[in-house]
Amino acid sequence: MALLDYGWIVPPQGSPLAADMEMVLSELEMQEADVVFEGGSLASVLCFLEGSDCLTVLPETTVAEIGSQFGIQAVPIQVRTPRRSIGILSRSARELDNTSRIFVRFLEDHFRSGGNAGPLT
Fold first, then answer.
1. pLDDT, tens digit, for every residue of 2-39?
2. What is the pLDDT, as a whole number, of residue 111?
3. Within 6-121, where are the H helices?
4. Residue 25's beta-bridge partner residues?
5. Cβ neighbours of residue 20 under 8 Å, at least 6 residues apart?
6. What is the pLDDT of residues 72-103, one digit of tens each?
7. What gap in Å lies between CA 56 and CA 22, rounded to an integer?
8. pLDDT of 121 over the 80 cut
9. For the chain, what are the domain ranges?
10. Looking at CB atoms within 10 Å, which of 7, 97, 112, 121 has the fewest?
11. What is the DSSP annotation of 9-40?
12. Report field, pTM of the whole predicted structure over 0.85
């Protein structure tokens, strides 16, 4: 069976995951996927997946963390990983506590080193 033989669950229009899905389908030359459910929350998508033979695009970490709870497994397809801009928000009226500063420093080091920052200390 081919991937186009399955129904697809798509994320809400305009969401980052919808952009990921469009990229994956385009890269696999699958613009004609049969959309059977346009998802809202992650919980609704997971519940729909659990009771169907449908496919969707989810972050690998999501599948690894909670996929087994819903009887979901990854289909091993190699695609490009989308680049993301990530920011850290905090209240300007209050200084960060020590734990928060350590965590922010870890994140900064992690991304500067290409994901090789080592353990959080």
1. 888 899 998 888 887 888 888 878 887 877 788 899 87
2. 79
3. 16-27, 42-50, 60-66, 98-112
4. none
5. 11, 57, 82
6. 888 877 777 667 677 788 888 889 999 989 98
7. 11
8. no
9. 3-70, 85-116
10. 121
11. EEPPTTSHHHHHHHHHHHHTT-TT-EEEEE--
12. no
What values do phi and psi take at 100, rounded to 5? -65, -40
pLDDT at 99: 92
| Alpha-carbon distance values, 104 to 80, 86, 100, 108 (Å) | 27, 12, 6, 6
pLDDT at 40 over 60: yes
Q: CA-CA distance, 74 to 59, in Å (whole number)?
A: 10
Residue type, 16: P
92 to 77, 86, 89, 95, 106: CA distances (angstroms): 43, 18, 9, 7, 20
| 5 SS3 class | helix
What is the Cα Rg of the chain in Å? 18
Rounded Cα distance, 76 and 61, in Å = 14
Report helix, strand or coil for 7.
Answer: strand
